[in-house]
User: Fold these one by one.
Assistant:
Number 1:
Amino acid sequence: MYIVAIAWLYVVLMMSITEQSAVAGVATFLLYGIFPLTVVLYLMGTPQRKRNRQKKAKLKAGRKEEAGYDSTMKREHQDDGQDADTPPR
């Protein structure tokens, strides 16, 4: 995906070099290259950002569940009269 973006920036750079003035060249580079490319790259990255967000939420939920399980196990061992760090008899 990035190779296409780099190629597009190269083409737009060559277009902007051939403009009559520096202002027109900068405007061409920004309006044909940078701004559209940022929008396209942002939209194409949306599914990956969504997957990353879901993965992060799943990991966070798993950690909360694991922490709840650990504290429950410690309470059960303490209720038996055993130390939480010692194995059951």
Number 2:
Amino acid sequence: MTDPLLGLGVVELVEALGAARQTVAAAESLTAGLFTAAVASVPGSSAVLRGGLVVYATDLKATLAGVDPDRLASDGPVSESTAVALALGARTRCGADWGIGLTGVAGPSEQDGHPVGTVFLGIAGPDGTECVPLALGGERWEIRTTAVATAVSRLRDRVVERAAR
């Protein structure tokens, strides 16, 4: 049986990280560990995957991932600043070259004024941070897997681009 997560381009991400001798960690809210599970599904991923934090509850974003509680109170758990802080927290706390932060609304209803499908992807790496805002459609599973596929693709592109310099 083929793992459906392997279809997200994660094999290519693991290969790119391995070739660059770099590692990744994630702090995941909306995806609840799906990114980390996808990376771990690839044979040999132990060379590149440092770990992950599932921070589904808002308070855990602060206590586990190091998101500033004042920032969480002002910007909310679903925001660009939270996604970037999650990525930085994963990178720092897990000792990885790259950090991924995923937060958003998978449904069934809006959260704090954000419609279903709102996702913020934070990426922190040796060359800085970025936030990718996404407006995704579909049911919960599709939103979550599309968020992971986007994280995999964007990180792979950054790793490859950085290695080419």
Number 3:
Amino acid sequence: MGYYDQNDENQNKRKRGYTGYFLAGLGGVIIGALLILPGSGLLNNDDNEITTGKSTENEPTEQSQQNLTLDVTSAVTNAVDKASDAVVGITNIQETNFWSQGTNAEDSSAEAGTGSGVVYKKDGGKAYIVTNNHVIEGANELEVTLSDGTKLPAELQGSDPWTDLAVIVVNGDKIKTIAEFGKSGKLKPGEPVIAIGNPLGLQFSGSITQGIISGLERTIEVDINEDGQVDWNAEVIQTDAAINPGNSGGALVNMSGQVIGINSMKIAENAVEGIGLSIPIDSVIPIINDIEEFGEVKRAFLGVNLASVEEISQYHQQNTLKLPRKVTFGVAITGVQSNSPASKAGLKEFDVIVGMDNEKIHDVVELRKYLYNEKKIGDKVKIIYYRDGKKETTEVKLSSSEI
């Protein structure tokens, strides 16, 4: 007869419970291990990736290699590539006091200054370079330094102090790049430009600065003979591209690499910043053409010495020139050259010119500007003037200064 032992049943239940717990735990361990092992691999892979990243921080990546060897090409670099080798350095060598230099004859010459120039033409084995008159002024010898450092002796072809331009000539064998001239009359305010030259001397040769056209048809008063009186109004381009001593005679270039101005000066005052001035290339071309052909600029010649009425005291305006009180402008003739166009037309000392053709003439600068810019050798000009208080007219046939 069978019987049911409550203790055995409880023991069996406990055994089944232990087995279940064991199997469940074992399954959990196995599942966990399966999950953990791949996870460990992922963690290891992640660690490897992180480690690899750290180990390559100092090694150039593909992107950084591209940046390090980046070949930047732009309108600016293209313009510089086209024009820069045509810009040269110019050294002005002058004789000095022999006794202060010792007994060596070679020591009797010294560099008086440096500037820049632009090679614009090769012809007959020679290369022609345009620069500023003040760069070559007073030189006993001139030396040109090319962009590759080659130095060449240069000769002065001619110069023009009125426009501050000069042409020098070197042997053309070593010259490889010729500048291309653009049209300064086509420039617009705000247009980007580049200045190329040798600021502060040959140490900084071939320096490039960039700016814009700040203004067109600016006029700057010029005292040619340094007597404190304005002799000429130079027409210039204004730019904020940096132009420093030594840049004089260098190129102002547009984005096509064409020379549109010859850098001449900057306004150097404590309260002024970024005002550089360049001679428009449209004005440069006829000047250098004359210098090439004649060694100077051929201008219409009147043959008189002049003084602006505004610079003459009121006493002499009334008593010497005998001007009507209402006439407070004009140009007084202080001397007439013999056999000159003015002399042949009957003009005399103390005559006061107030008009040429249909243009009113206020001062000496206006008279020169009209004569030099509007008239040519052989032209006729009607002169309106006062003599002894009376207005008169005469006609003058202009000649060259050689006649």
